[in-house]
Design a protein that fits this description.
flat; about 900 residues; 6-stranded antiparallel beta sheet; 4-stranded parallel beta sheet; alpha+beta
């Protein structure tokens, strides 16, 4: 697989940037700040997406970090090749992943393709993003690596069936979780919590006797508080009786004041009603009548405005006094038709006369078409045949390319099926071995007394063996024989070639008959032929219509008739533009008709207005009122006074009804004779005394409640001392059992780790050989002081002891990390080599090592496509 081209719309500081990749080493040497790391990040994001999208810090959250500085479309395009097929992937990024867009296209057909999904990197390399960054992608100051489970799966040819590795990780995680939850040393461990509870129970049992003495002291103080509360309660009851008596007097006094207030309000309403009745002179109008007459007034106002609109001006009145004769519409239409006919005849005579140039053109075309003239449909048919012939030629070329593509795809498909059958055999052996190891581990765990865990391991082992036996059941076989699609395509090409030949024969026949000139393009010649044919027909037609004695006589008759018509109305036109003169005469007639209609509408509205005004006037006089200049305002004032009167009347009746109900319910003479009792306190002073007593009682209640709660808590503690003793004994026994189970789980975890180490040890030596190869390639020396364990961890032998790589200098750690990454890539991808991305990984190497690194680049570029970024010419 390799990269072909990338185009960045906007990504970080890079905008509208394109780079074409070649085989071998692609070196990008630019100064600091140019955007090399941004370009490397773009390639990674197009394959695996953004890292740390959940982080708030924009420097850690890559989606925020690489958001375009100059705004615009966020994303770009990457073209790549995989298994001999070329693709184009386009991505645009939004503010969150839900707004992202993804499109994969086959670059040969430019059609959407479903060979890969948005998880492009994982499907292309068969590893996750973390494993990609530990192997293929080498970034600056992060050259060190470690083996992930994804790398283990890929090296072991389990990339397409990682359940075995995942099952180990699940079981290992489950055991770790159980051990952590039971840990006797962790605060959250159940065994540690049991020990802490045992210590707590022993302390509480020792403190049991002190609880009993405290309970007796609190009980004595509680009894004293109860006696004081009962004394305060008796005093409060006495004050409540006195308050009740005084409250009855207050209620009666309030009723008396309310009754006197109602009587005063009723007298006031009576006076108001008398004043309102005097305004209406004893005749109170009805609301419906007033509203009806108000509507009549509003209608009269609208009619008066209409009168103003239809009233004739002085100039319009003068026009009506002029005795202008009206023309009948039918006769006017007749004269319009005569004038139009006259103008048409004069125009035809002027237009049909041929010029000298047109006469010469007619003679030339008569000679050209002396032996006949092709039909328009025949020329169009030849045009269509020429177009169909050209389209057929183009389509034949496209189908030829498609045929070659189908032949190539068929050959690649046959080769791919053969490779899949070979790889299936390897995977089947590995799955069988891993299933047997899991089953043996399960039997060992059962023998140790853990039946459930052992059963799970046995089931997983059987499942792995079954998967190995069924793994290749659905694999497709090599397709041989005839490709149906290719056959159909070849048949279509033969039919298309026959149709093209028919079209060419029709074109050749037409050109022979009408003499296509040599060197002239066919389409242009056909257009020229059509134009000649149309010119010839048009000139012949005009020649037939040129000149006529009948037309001349008709023109004279029409002119005489129109002149006599205008003479009748004293409107003889100065020129012979009879249509304009008729328009002017018709306009005068229409204007007089409009004035007559306007005058008629004015008289109708005037009559209507006078009738409405008389109706309102009669109504006001019926109310003994003198009509005013603006009756609508007079009616509005009457309506306002009527509403006030109605409102006062309703309020008077309400108060009258309320007084009647009050007198029926209460003893009025007793209320009027009510007097203030002597020697009584005010309700306010009684309420203050009662408030003080209530607060003191509340304090006693709280004190008693506090004593009771203390006694309840202590009693519960006293009652639970014996229960604590029983709990202590049971907890000690349970803790001993838990410690035994904790030791057994630890042993199980060690057995699983040994099984995994046995599995990974098989490919440790090939990885180590690759490391030695690339170490020698980069340094020019052998790596004799390094060794690799079964977990693919590299150690350096210093002082006769294996040491962690972290003790070495930064430059040596980078060198070892680069060699280790290349060794892992070589082991992971034996057949199809991936491209490598190196973001200035040699920055920490010394001068001699840097020279070796340049030779190293040259060598690996022979097998891999390398995209190498650097900022210094010495590392180029």
């Amino acid at each position: 697989m390799k990269l072909i081209k990338c185009h960045i719309e906007n990504f970080g500081k890079l905008s509208d940037f394109t780079y074409d990749f070649t085989d071998g080493c692609n070196t990008v040497c630019e100064e600091n700040g140019w955007g090399k790391s941004t370009l490397a990040a773009f390639l990674r994001v197009m394959l695996f997406g953004f890292r740390n999208e959940g982080k708030r810090d924009p420097l850690e959250n890559e989606r925020k970090r690489y958001s375009p500085w100059q705004k615009g479309v966020y994303g770009g395009e990457l073209q790549f090749e995989s298994e001999g097929k070329q693709y184009s992937v386009r991505r645009t990024f939004g503010s969150k992943s839900a707004e992202d867009e993804f499109q994969l296209t086959d670059t040969k057909t430019n059609l959407p393709c479903s060979d890969f999904t948005q998880n492009l990197g994982e499907e292309l390399f068969r590893i996750d993003a973390g494993s990609f960054e530990r192997t293929i992608f080498i970034s600056q100051n992060d050259c060190e690596t470690f083996v992930t489970d994804g790398i283990n799966a890929k090296i072991g040819n389990l990339a397409e069936n990682t359940d075995d590795i995942n099952n180990f990780e699940t079981a290992d995680k489950r055991l770790n979780d159980l051990l952590n939850s039971m840990s006797p040393s962790r605060k959250t461990g159940s065994l540690r919590q049991s020990k802490d509870r045992i210590t707590e129970l022993k302390t509480q049992i020792r403190n049991g006797q002190e609880i009993h003495n405290t309970m007796e002291s609190i009980d004595t103080r509680k009894k004293a508080a109860i006696e004081e509360r009962e004394k305060l309660s008796a005093e409060l009851t006495e004050l409540q009786e006195r308050q009740k008596e005084l409250g009855i007097y207050k209620d009666q006094q309030a009723k008396k004041e309310k009754y006197l207030d109602l009587r005063a309000k009723m007298a006031q309403r009576q006076q108001t009603l008398k004043e309102a009745e005097s305004y209406f002179n004893g005749v109170i109008p009805k609301g419906e009548e007033l509203r009806e007459k108000a509507a009549v007034c509003n209608q009269g106002i609208s009619v008066r405005k209409a009168m103003e609109i239809y009233c004739l001006t002085v100039e319009e009145q003068a026009q009506l006094k002029d005795n202008f004769p009206m023309v009948d519409n039918a006769r006017l239409e007749e004269k319009y038709a005569e004038a139009q006919e006259l103008e048409s005849l004069e125009s035809t005579i002027r237009k049909n006369a041929l010029s000298g140039e047109e006469s010469r053109r007619l003679e030339e075309l008569s000679g050209y078409f002396a032996e006949g003239m092709p039909q328009e449909a025949e020329i169009d048919s030849v045009k269509n045949a020429w177009t169909n012939r050209n389209e057929g030629k183009s389509l034949l070329q496209a189908k030829e390319i498609q045929r070659k593509t189908l032949q190539s795809i068929q050959a690649q498909e046959d080769a791919r099926c053969l490779r899949e059958q070979e790889e299936a055999g390897k995977r089947k052996k590995i799955l069988l071995l891993f299933g047997i190891l899991l089953s043996l581990g399960g039997f060992v765990v059962i023998l140790l007394g853990q039946g459930v865990i052992g059963g799970v391991l046995i089931v997983l082992g059987i499942a792995a063996v079954a998967a190995a036996l069924l793994f290749t059941a659905g694999r497709s076989k090599v397709q041989t024989g005839e490709n149906t699609e290719l056959s159909y395509l070849e048949q279509e090409m033969e039919e298309l070639e026959a149709q093209v030949r028919i079209e060419e024969e029709q074109i050749d026949d037409f050109c022979t008959r009408w003499g296509l000139r040599e060197g002239l393009e066919l389409t242009s010649w056909l257009v020229e032929l059509q134009n000649k044919r149309r010119d010839y027909e048009a000139l012949l037609e005009r020649q037939k219509q040129d000149g006529s004695d009948e037309k001349t006589a008709r023109i004279a008759a029409l002119q005489k008739d129109l002149q006599q018509f205008f003479a009748e109305y004293g409107e003889v036109p100065e020129t012979q533009n009879y249509l304009a003169a008729l328009h002017e005469l018709a306009g005068k007639c229409r204007q007089r008709q409009l004035l007559l209609e306007k005058q008629k509408k004015y008289l109708q509205q005037k009559q209507k207005y006078e009738a409405l005004a008389e109706q309102v006037k009669n109504y006001l006089m019926s109310l003994q009122l003198i009509p005013e200049e603006h009756p609508e305002e007079q009616l509005a004032e009457l309506e306002s006074h009527r509403k006030d009167y109605e409102k006062e009347l309703q309020e008077y009746r309400r108060i009258e009804k309320e007084i009647k109900a009050f007198e029926e319910k209460e003893d009025i003479p007793a209320l009027l004779a009510l007097k203030i009792p002597e020697g009584e306190e005010s309700l306010e002073s009684l309420a203050d005394e009662m408030q003080v007593l209530s607060e003191r009682m509340e304090e006693r209640f709280q004190t008693i409640d506090s004593y009771q709660k203390q006694l309840s808590d202590l009693q519960e503690s006293w009652d639970t001392v014996e229960n604590m003793q029983e709990e202590l004994e049971a907890l000690q026994e349970k803790t001993e059992e838990g410690l035994k189970q904790y030791e057994l789980l630890g042993m199980t975890k060690n057995l699983l780790e040994q099984a995994k180490s046995s599995f990974t040890a098989k490919y440790t030596e090939p990885v180590m050989q690759g490391f030695r190869k690339y170490y020698r390639m980069l340094t020019g020396t052998e790596c004799e002081n390094y060794q690799m364990d079964a977990n693919t961890r590299l150690k350096v032998i210093e002082g006769n002891m294996p040491r962690d790589i972290g003790y070495l200098s930064l430059g040596n750690r980078d060198l070892i990390g680069i060699c280790m990454r290349l060794a892992l890539v070589e082991a992971m991808y034996e057949e199809q080599k991936p491209f490598l991305i190196l973001d200035d990984p040699f920055v920490n190497l010394d001068e001699n090592r840097t020279k070796g690194a340049m030779r190293f680049l040259t060598e690996i570029a022979k097998e891999y496509q390398v995209i190498y970024f650097t900022c210094h010419g010495s590392r180029e």
